[in-house]
Amino acid sequence: MKENKASIGKIISLPKIVDPRGNLSVAEGMKDIPFNVSRVYWTYDVPSGAFRGGHSHKHCREFIIAVSGSFTVTLDDGIHKQSFLLNHPYQGLLVDTDTWRTLDDFSSGAVCLVLAESPFDESDYIRDYNEYLNYKASKGK
Known about the structure:
CATH class: Mainly Beta
Radius of gyration: 15 Å
Strand order of the largest sheet: 1-9-6-11-4
Helix content: under 10%
């Protein structure tokens, strides 16, 4: 993995309301994260050794939160890679467009929540890494 001087992704801390009955965090579009949320999905019961992601989006930004447990998100811009351990439900990782992402090392009971800027659109996905690299090269990045 190459060292990355500039961060590919950005960890954003969310408001954390501490209460003896249990803490609460909130993510509001255009306030806590820089887009309005159009879609929400979550992954859970990920088998040991399995990974999720393995794709890039052309137009959809995402905000990834470990609401329970932990996992690692590796981001790749075609030149640099950077890994982020997500293990706090009051923090999330902002993933910009044109960024390849892979999620792995899920702890037992981990739940990954994703807030997406756009509704599902298969044509927005690049699911082959070589195709992703060609796409990035064609954009001149």
